[in-house]
Each structure stands twice: as C-alpha cells, then as structure tokens.
Design goal:
It is built from 5 helices and 13 strands. The protein has about 240 residues and is mainly beta. The longest helix is centred in the C-terminal third of the chain and has 11 residues. About 40% of the residues are buried.
Length: about 240
C-alpha cells in the first residue's frame, strides 16, 4: 500500500467526519493515536474534549444549546490495563466491558452496528492499542451500512502486529462531504507518524477544515514504560 500525505488528505477533504489514526513513532519508541471530531450542525459543533483521568470524554461547550446528546456525548478514549480504546461513539464502553470479560475486540463489537442517524447511517469506527512488555500491536474496525442500506451491517477489522516505526493507519467515518454523507470505503490509509507530538497535533489541527473542525486528541505512549503524554485542542475555548 502506498503511503499518503496525511496533511494533503485532510486539506483536500472538507468533511471526513470523525477520524482515528493509530501507529508508531518514527524512532520506534512510542505508540501513537489521534482522534478528531468535526460537525456541520450546531449540536455537533457544540462540543469539547475533556480529560477524565487517563480517559477522554466529550461534553457540551454550551449546555443550553445541547439538543440531542445521544450520539455526541460519549467517552472516545478509555483505558483497560495495557489496552487503550479509541472510538467515535459509546461503543468505547461496549469494547471496554467486552474485553474486561475476556472477549476479543472483534467479538465485543458484534453487538453493535452503524449509528441510527438516517439517512447517513454513520459508521462506527474503533481502534484498540495493546502495549505490553515492550511490544505493541493495534487494530482498527469499521461497522457500516451496506452501501446506505440499513438492513445489513458490514463489519471489517484490520489488525497490525509488529508495527513498523514511522507508520500508522487512518480511518474516518465519511468518504467526503455530501447529502447523505457517503461512508468511508476500503482499507485504512497508510500514513507517516512523526516523533514530535506537538508537531503532529498542529499539523492535524491546521489541516482540518476550519469551519467544520471541533476537537482533536493526540496521545504518545512510551512502549517500554507505558507512560504517556497527551494533547487536546478544542475550537470552542
């Protein structure tokens, strides 16, 4: 698979929706993830990311403008031991609870499907990072309608072992802007992962469409020690 420019990819797509990037830093020492959200409606744009210990939650920036919390208020990042879960919805909790009962990432998601937001049927995208004993692997999942038909759910899981330094994968909810919004197609895209977290976060944030971007989260986890550093950028201040 050819590596694409993540900066170019984001700058040329006004509405990829919500996106997850997982990979390994160029020097090989860090497990890296990033998650961003975008919005077109007042309800979707009225959000911020907040830290909750080692986990991340969304909350309304202006509670008086919150019209429907069902699909926008959730924990996009949860941590279960040496596993970090990143998703675009409340399936974060489904994965956490399933894996806590010794189910696999894929098995945990069997009870879920795409979001019930007709006519878009937004895909549920999820990622899992496993850092243990100096080793690192990750997986990405997408649950989507069958080409816009909600009577069938198509399930795809992509697993990456012995992750290569400097490489990562990018998956997002929408192929592009539209009405209805077309779902992401194909495999997660191969992208470069730099060593510098601040540099990576700024590149992502400045590349996202100015009108539609809402919040960004980036985390670098030291593979040897498990210690991490995180950064959040919210458009609403």
């Amino acid at each position: 698979m050819e590596m694409i420019s993540l900066e170019k990819e984001l700058k040329e797509n006004s509405y990829p929706g919500r996106g997850i990037i997982i990979g390994r830093s160029a020097d090989g020492t860090k497990a890296v993830t990033a998650y961003f959200i975008m919005g077109r409606s007042v309800n979707s744009r009225n959000r911020v990311f907040v830290e909750d210990g080692e986990e991340i939650r969304t909350q309304a920036f202006d509670p008086s403008k919150l019209s429907d919390p069902s699909l926008i208020i959730y924990a996009p990042v949860r941590v279960l031991g040496n596993k970090t879960i990143v998703t675009n919805g409340d399936q974060t909790d489904t994965i956490y609870e399933g894996m806590d009962r010794q189910m696999t990432f894929e098995q945990s998601l069997r009870s879920r499907e795409f979001e019930p937001d007709a006519p878009n049927y937004t895909p549920r995208i999820s990622g899992i990072m496993h850092v243990e004993g100096g080793k690192y692997s990750y997986a990405l999942s997408i649950l989507k309608s069958n080409n816009g038909d909600p009577s069938a759910c198509n399930r795809f899981t992509f697993a990456y072992e012995n992750c290569v330094a400097g490489e990562g994968h990018f998956i997002h909810t929408y192929k592009c802007d539209g009405d209805p919004l077309p779902s992401f197609e194909g495999e997660p895209k191969l992208v470069a992962i730099p060593d510098d977290m601040e540099e990576f976060a700024q590149m992502l944030w400045t590349s996202l469409n100015e009108d539609n971007k809402v919040s960004l989260f980036v985390r670098y986890i030291d593979i040897a020690s498990g210690k991490y550093e995180s950064k959040i950028i919210n458009k609403n201040q």
